[in-house]
Structures are given as structure tokens and as C-alpha cells.
Design goal:
By secondary structure, the chain is of the alpha+beta class. The chain has 13 helices and 15 strands. A hairpin with a 2-residue loop joins strand 3 (69-72) and strand 4 (75-78).
């Protein structure tokens, strides 16, 4: 059409009743635009049909390879050094680190990206954590291009079919770890909305600077915990508000450390406390006297049992004597318990043993805060700054954790 017009030849479209010889340049430009748009839409539709057919057959190839892979022929092959980075990201997230923490660690270690990019962002980490390609499977048409010009790439929320292909290349991450990550991300999203964590954290968080309890606060639909004095007047306390997500992430990180290293952290504490208790028992005169009385009464009970078995004591006398001995034994043991609890070691031993028992049977990867964590492990939390907190355990042990800084 352009060529004919350039040669001075007009065109008459019979169906549309358009004669270019009778049109202005503006009208001709409009026709050019219409034809161009039709051509673009037809080409786009043809491409979409071609892509859909290849997806249905399982022959589709993504225009870009995921980080950790390179395309050889029509197969994705693992790049070993990049695959290690992917595994590192998944392991860090499952151990309790947040996406911002992971990105910071990768940047500090100068881990390279692809295509000349050097900086790791939380969004980059999130993309890797949600990409099913790392399990060896592929999910196609997660997004699609709109039919109307200007064409836009939009997320597929059910408007178009999705195509799932299983075991089409070598996996970097196991399917189990991938599913655990998705579940953990979902639980953290719920925690941000305050469905679980807020109730558990209530009256547990205290300010190190002024000793005041923190309270829950919602700012722009995001949950924070703030020192009550600071919230009233910033001059009263310098400790600023902390996003709940950061506190939850730090507690989960502490849990995973205890879970993995309980034999190195808690078992020695239990041994030391038990040894201290034994020394206390040996040096405490009152406890020694009680132990002697318990031993004497126990021996008397055994004598009564033997006499009763031989028929030397009738039932009424036997019941009367053993009842009196049992009453004295219960009273002596109660006194002994009070003395032990006053010394502190006994309650610490029980708490440490309960923590070890809980960690032995608890999940390898805890996906969200639970009541058991606060009933068995965490007694209280102290915030010392925007990036530092201390977690006090029920056995008297205090662990320090860092929190990712919020960009303001």
C-alpha cells in the first residue's frame, strides 16, 4: 500500500468503500495504523497459538533459563556453582532467615548473578524460592500477553490454562524442600496479618532500655511492636517500633539453631545443672537429714510388708502402720522439693529436660510460631535495638538474635 501510494497510484477498497485517492494524509495515516494494528494482532495471535501447541505437546522452551541452568540443545543443564547458590538460598530460608537477610548475605559474599548484574534483592531471592523449575518440573503459562494493544504481560489467575510438565530436566532442589518453602512463605504471610503470632507475642516483649512492655500497633496495614513509652513520646525511650515479621523470623531462626545443635547447646547445660544439684545435695545438711529419714521409713515399710506376708501382722495393724509411714514419706518429699526449688537447680533441670524432649520430637523445619514454642522454649523477649533482641528460655539461658533492618 505504501509503495503504490508512493508511485501515485490510488487504491480502492470495495468492501470498505475506501478510495485512498480521495483521502487526506491524516486519513491515510489512520489506515496505515489500522493495518499495522491488525498485522501486529494477527502475528501475536499466531505466536500465541504456536506457543500453546508446543506447551500442549510438552515441546515448549522458555525464552530465558532459570538461574542455575544453561540451555544445551533443548535441555536445561545444571551450572554447578550457581546450583550451590540456589541450594544455599533454600537452606537459609528453611533455617529461618528472611529474604532480605539472604540477599544481604549473598551481597556481602560477592556472589555473582547473571547477565552482568551484581546486586541481590529480596525480590530476586523470592523468585528463586518460588520457581518450581528447581525441582526438575516446569509450569508453563504462569503469565500471558493480553490480546489488546498495547500488549501487556499479566499474571495468569485462571483466565488461561496452565501446563505442568514433570521431570523434564535435572533437579537442584528436592520436591519436599520446595513444598516446605512454599508452606513456610504462606505461614509467614499469615503471620504478617497477625493471625497467629500477635496473640503469642502479647505480653512477651519488653524494652531493654526502659523495661516497658511492647504493644501491638498497625501502620499502613502492617503489624509492628513498639515500646509503650516510645510510642507516647520518642524522647522517653529511643527504641523504635519493630515489624512483627522480623521478630517472628528471629524466633524461628533461634528455634532452628536449637533444633540442629541441641546436643551442643542444651545437653551440656543439663549435665552442668545436674552436677550442681548433686553437689548441693551433698553439702545441704537439711536435705541429708531428710534423705536419712526417708531411708529409715522406707526400710520400716519393707519390714511391715515382710511381716504381713508371713502372717505375723494382721491387716488392720498393717494398714494403720503403712498409712502413717506413707503420710510421713509424702511430707518429707514435699519438704525436700521445696528446698530444691528454692535453690533453683531443680526447676532449671526440669525445664532443660522438657526443652530437649520437645526438640527431639518437634519438626525439623518449623513453618510458623506455635504455642509449644512459647510453652516449652521461649519465656520472654527483650528488644535492645532495631536490629538486636535477646530471647530468654525457661531454663535461664538467654540467646541473642539479630533482626533485619527496615528501610525507611
Amino acid at each position: 500500500m505504501r509503495e503504490l501510494l508512493r508511485l501515485g497510484i490510488s487504491i480502492h477498497f470495495e468492501k470498505e468503500n475506501i478510495d485512498t485517492g480521495k483521502m487526506t494524509s491524516e486519513q491515510i495515516a489512520t489506515i496505515y495504523g489500522a493495518f499495522s494494528q491488525m498485522e501486529s494482532q494477527n502475528h501475536s495471535n499466531n505466536m500465541r497459538i504456536s506457543v500453546r501447541i508446543r506447551m500442549e505437546k510438552g515441546d515448549y522452551l522458555s525464552p530465558s533459563e532459570p538461574y542455575g541452568y544453561r540451555l544445551e540443545g533443548r535441555t536445561l543443564m545444571i551450572i554447578p556453582e550457581q546450583a550451590e547458590v540456589v541450594r544455599r538460598i533454600y537452606a537459609a530460608y528453611l533455617s529461618g532467615q528472611g529474604k532480605s537477610d539472604i540477599a544481604d548475605d549473598l551481597n556481602k559474599a560477592d556472589v555473582p548473578r547473571t547477565k552482568g548484574r551484581t546486586v541481590w534483592h529480596p525480590s530476586t531471592v523470592a523468585y528463586i524460592l518460588t520457581n518450581i523449575a528447581y525441582t526438575g518440573d516446569m509450569l508453563w503459562q504462569k503469565s500471558f500477553v493480553t490480546n489488546e494493544i498495547p500488549f501487556r504481560q499479566v499474571r495468569n489467575k485462571g483466565e488461561k490454562p496452565k501446563y505442568f510438565v514433570e521431570n523434564c530436566h535435572e533437579a537442584i532442589i528436592s520436591k519436599e524442600d520446595f513444598q516446605r518453602v512454599q508452606a513456610l512463605m504462606e505461614s509467614r504471610r499469615r503471620q504478617i496479618n497477625g493471625t497467629v503470632s500477635s496473640a503469642l507475642l502479647a505480653k512477651k516483649i519488653r524494652c531493654e532500655g526502659c523495661g516497658t512492655l511492647f504493644r501491638r500497633k498497625i501502620v499502613n496495614e502492617k503489624i509492628y511492636w513498639t515500646c509503650r513509652r516510645h510510642d507516647r513520646d520518642k524522647d522517653l525511650c529511643p527504641t523504635s517500633q519493630i515489624p512483627e515479621e522480623q521478630i517472628v523470623t528471629a524466633i524461628l531462626r533461634m528455634y532452628h539453631k536449637l533444633k540442629r545443635h541441641r546436643a551442643q547447646i542444651l545437653s551440656p547445660v543439663l549435665s552442668q545443672l545436674t552436677e550442681l544439684r548433686e553437689k548441693e545435695l551433698r553439702s545441704n545438711r537439711r536435705i541429708n537429714d531428710i534423705d536419712k529419714e526417708i531411708a529409715q521409713l522406707t526400710e520400716q515399710n519393707l519390714v511391715l510388708v515382710r511381716l504381713k506376708s508371713k502372717g505375723y501382722v494382721d491387716s488392720a495393724l498393717y494398714l494403720s502402720q503403712t498409712g502413717e509411714i506413707d503420710f510421713k514419706l509424702r511430707e518429707l518429699r514435699r519438704q525436700r522439693r521445696r528446698i530444691m526449688e528454692a535453690n533453683g537447680e531443680d526447676s532449671q533441670i526440669k525445664a532443660t529436660q522438657a526443652m530437649l524432649d520437645y526438640l527431639e520430637d518437634s519438626p525439623e523445619y518449623l513453618e510458623e510460631l506455635t504455642e509449644e514454642v512459647f510453652e516449652t522454649l521461649v519465656e520472654s523477649i527483650t528488644i535492645s535495638s532495631e536490629t538486636a533482641m535477646s530471647i530468654s528460655l525457661y531454663n535461664g539461658l538467654t540467646l541473642k538474635e539479630t533482626m533485619e533492618r527496615t528501610v525507611r
